[in-house]
Amino acid sequence: MTTTYDVLIIGSGPGGYVTAIRSAQLGLKTAIVEREHLGGICLNWGCIPTKALLRSAEIYHYAQHAQDYGLNIEGKVTFDPAAVVKRSRGVSQQLNGGVGFLLKKNKVDVIWGEAVIDKPGQVTVSKTKKAAVQPQNPVPKGTLGEGVYQAKNIIVATGARPRVLPGIEPDGKLIWTYFEAMVPAEFPKSLIVMGSGAIGIEFASFYRTMGCDVTVVEVMPQVLPVEDAEIAGLARKRFEKAGIKIMTSTKVSKVEKKANSVVCTLEDEKGNKSTLEAERLISAVGVVGNIENIGLEKLGVKTDRGCVVTDGLGRTNIPGIFAIGDVAGPPMLAHKAEHEGVICVEAIKGLHVHPMDKAMIPGCTYCHPQVASVGLTEAKAKEQGLSIKVGRFPFMGNGKAIALGEPDGLIKTIFDAKTGKLLGAHMIGAEVTELIQGYVVAMNLETTEEELIHAVFPHPTLSEMMHESVLDAYGRVIHT
Amino acid sequence: MPINILMPALSPTMEKGNLARWLKKEGDTIKAGDVLAEIETDKATMEVEAVDEGILAKIMVADGTADVAVNTLIGVIASEGEDVKAAASSGGSPASPPKAAAAASPAAPAQAASAAPVAAATVAAAPASGARVFASPLARRIAKDARIDLTRVKGTGPHGRIVERDVRAAIAGGGPLAAPAAGASAPSAPMGMSDATIRKFFADGSYEEIPHDSMRKTIARRLVEAKQTIPHFYLSVDCELDTLLAAREAINANAPKDKDGKPAYKVSVNDFIIKALAVALQRVPDANVTWTEGAMLKHKHSDVGVAVSIPGGLITPIVRMAETKGLAQISNEMKDYAARARARKLKPEEYQGGTSAVSNLGMFGIKNFSAVINPPHATILAVGAGEQRIVVKKGAPAVATVMSVTLSTDHRAVDGALGAELISAFKTLIENPMGMLV
Predict the structure, then answer these.
(1) CA torsion angle B41 B106 A354 A339 (round to 10)
(2) How many CA atoms lie within 13 A of B184 on its CB side?
(3) Measuring CA to CA, which residue among B69, B151, B158, B167 is closest to residue B117?
(4) Angstroms from A228 CA to nearest CA on chain B
(5) Is A312 left (phi over 0), alpha (psi -120 to 50) or beta?
(6) A294: exposed, middle or buried (Cβ count in 10 Å: 0-12, 13-18, 19+)
(7) CB A448 to CB B109 under 8 A?
(8) Does A409 have pLDDT greater than 90?
(9) Which of B108, B115, B138 sits opposite A347 (nearest CB)?
(10) Tell me, what DSSP letter sits at residue B33?
């Protein structure tokens, strides 16, 4: 006898597995297909293991500056690349196991293999053809295998993979993607990072802290191109102070491979060429959706620029087939995928849901210093013809920041001058990735400046700067 | 951990309903699948089934409570081995994962195609004065600046909270404005007399006051909306029924019988009328439409609503794709609809939508009347009694069975000549019923 699932999800990344758990909570019979690793890129090769690497770098940085805090470390602080990588893999493995546990606890069937949608309502799973990236986390126990599965609703959550530029194809040895950059046998002495989005800048930051000579090449005129220009400008200064070389409005036009190095031909906006040699090149020029080989073309599922086209509730043009997360288009962020998946499955269940408001999705970059933002940048707000009030508050004016020895940073808020609507918030400095959520909640509750000003922020915390930034937008700032 | 019972959404568009009555008492043992309570929506009463087992620890919303918003906590179940008192007092604590009660029948995990969260109407009925309005700070500020009366804006945020988009929609829709400041004058829709003014016409004690149930409120709201927003016009014709009556007799006489001698169907004149209207709409497809501000929705199928009078009101179940169905199928479907309508057991998807409708008062001897269009339809056919009349045939008086029908038409969607084409196609089919069979 064959089971017909209410919901079958293809891909167990943060979008897929969260959707599966929510689906099971709603009483729907749920299965999830995974070919490589529970938790997807995020947990195995992305968000999580890089945070572990960056934590090692952060502690190393503090240890080097122990004297600033009155501490003496006898002898030289050193690091062991293999041990740093091992810790990162351990973190990933622990959470990978956790996802397996959560799926089991919620009685979600895990099907191991590669899925192809034959038609709405039916998926064929066959042995995984893709060679797993090493080291691989163990395959969970008790999974279902190859076969034909029936499901009333199929959710595509196959995620994304690194974008490849022609002529600069990653080879895993000299030209790296995030996969290789995360598990180096040893740290290179020199490195070129192509692309200054979150992934590129985080690796630049990590390798620089670990003593590597790092150059970031960015085709756009600013680093962190999606961030507010003022914040990105401050970030650039801090990166350069840390010794990272930055070349904006510049592209890598050619790469020549040598025995243990690459020679990159760089071209600026005026067409001036130069060459730069380094041991390794990291290609971090974005990601593209995994829309191929899952049967979407044959079924006529509509795609646009490498992503599945969906409505606000994850529905594709084919009834019974849904898509969420990276494969359903930008912003390609784990938390967007999770939320999109929950909305999708709640709509399948028939609950009353609202489509996600993409203007309220925060973004975080864990470089040193950290960058976090939500909503419109100052430039975007002006582009929309909005009349705005902008508030700024520097870390230098905050007691906790000074006590922490983190006096560099800025919290910027942007309000609609007419209605007091919080349009955007942009931050740079220590721990700002943990602060941004306060503004996200405020935006979702549609608070105006009045409620934010009225709220009491605890002292002494970095969060007081969030209050002060709002006060500044309305000419009432205290500590500057 | 105690299990919260939430007000279920019985249809994708349902936002609130009345808690008609509890079928379990506090302290009762609950098994999965037990019917816990009855929920009354606009037009139907439905049962709420338990998903989990335990003991009904606390009833939070009492029998007969009106307008309970979807997802409101209505009760708490203590799981096995759990302290009932503790569970009861924990009711509503955010720590317990909310488990929506499953609606008995219509909650199949189907493609919630109609769950698209578009606010159909942005203007809600004015609530009792003094009731708290839930609105976001931003919504309040924008409403204040635009002088929008928030008590008459329908909220689409969590738990029906009014959010920015609701106020923006209300502004775009031109109102409802707050009471103008003294001296200023604002144009407003004509309002009926206040309840107090009306009561003053009658001596105290000379009447009994019967509170409106939700069906009565819905009828009032929808018909006011229909008559105020739809420019109606009316077309009447007489149809001769003799051929149809003979065909009906032959069809019913030939119905197969089961072992108790009960015929498989008994087709009524009304079934012919439903079928004829459905086929006529297919023959005049430009009249099988719905008006929207943005575009004309031209329907592919004839979904014919049939007004069914029930104690305390009426309801219009829809015979979907009626042009594709045989008379016997239509007949049996209508019998089922009528029976369940009287028991108020129709599901929302069975009475919402449709492209046209039939209202038949012939059985009361009504000769001719005009019906009010039931949005989103563009037409409705009012059917009078079939009666023997003297008609002129070939210059001489003759007796024929004649039925007068009147088509009410939404002039925004269907113009006079097009409406005439539709009703004349209908007349042709009624007078030559063989035309419906091909």
Answers:
(1) 140
(2) 9
(3) B158
(4) 24
(5) alpha
(6) buried
(7) no
(8) yes
(9) B115
(10) T
**Cβ-nearest to B9 among A315, A350, A419:** A350
Question: What secondary structure does DSSP assign to B311-349, as a single string?
Answer: TTEEE--EETTGGGS-HHHHHHHHHHHHHHHHTT---HH
Strand partners, A194: A217, A283
Q: Answer whether B136 sits within 8 Å of A351, measured CB to CB.
A: no
Contact at CB, B141 and A348, closer than 8 angstroms: no
- pLDDT given at position B57: 84
pLDDT of the residue at B89: 65
Structure tokens at B402: 């004649």
Global pTM reads 0.61
Instruction: Report whether B153 contacts B124 (CB < 8 A).
Output: yes
Amino acid at A396: M
Angle (CA) B81 B87 B88, round 5°? 135
Amino acid letter, B35: V
Hey, are the CB atoms on A446 and B139 less than 8 Å from each other?
yes
Residue-by-residue DSSP string for B141-158: HHHHHTTB-GGGBPP-SG
Dihedral angle of Cα A53, A59, A60, A63, to the nearest 10 degrees: 180
From first CA to last CA, the distance across chain B in angstroms is 63
Q: Are A314 and A340 in contact (CB under 8 A)?
A: yes
pLDDT at A323: 98
The catalytic residues of A are 459
Alpha helix ranges (H) inside B33-189 = 84-90, 137-145, 164-172
Q: Is A106 on the interface with B (CB under 8 A)?
A: no
Q: Which residue in chain B has the smallest CA separation from A30?
A: B109
Q: What pLDDT digit, counting tens, does each position of B102-140 carry?
A: 443 333 333 333 333 333 334 444 444 556 889 999 999
By the 8 A CB rule, do B393 and B414 touch? no
Residue-wise DSSP of B176-236? PBPPPPTT-----------HHHHHTTS-TTSS------HHHHHHHHHHHHHHHHS-EEEEE
Whether A451 has its CB under 8 Å from any CB of chain B: the answer is yes
Report the candidate in A426, A337, A418, A312 with the shortest Cα–Cα distance to residue A380.
A426
Chain A contact set for B164 (CB, 8 A): 421, 446
CB distance from A355 to chain B under 8 Å?
A: yes
Q: Residue A199 — φ and ψ, nearest 5°?
A: -65, -50
Q: Write the residue in B109, B117, B137 that is nearest to A446 by C-beta.
A: B137
Q: Decide if B413 contacts B289 (C-beta within 8 A).
A: yes
Of A25, A349, A355, the CB nearest to B117: A355
Chain B residue with Cα closest to A322: B111
A354·B51 Cβ contact <8 A: no
Q: Which amino acid belongs to residue B119?
A: A
CA distances from B17 to A57, A426, B63, B215 (A): 57, 43, 12, 11
Could you say which DSSP state residue B263 is in? B
CA separation for the pair B355, B432 (Å, rounded): 24
What's the pLDDT score for residue B436?
Answer: 84
Q: Which tops the pLDDT comparison, B94 or B210?
A: B210
By C-alpha distance, the chain A residue nearest B109 is A349
Find residue A116's DSSP bridge partners.
Answer: A124
In this predicted model, what pLDDT tens digit does every residue of B26-73 receive, in sequence order?
888 888 778 888 888 766 777 787 877 888 888 888 888 888 888 888
Element (H, E) at B175: none
Which chain B residue has the Cα nearest residue A24? B99
- Nearest CA to CA, how far is A110 from chain B (Å)? 21
Nearest residue in B to A6, CA atom: B109
Contacts of A353 in chain B (CB under 8 A): 115, 117
CB contacts, 8 Å: B111 with chain A: 153, 315, 319-320, 348
Amino acid at A423: L
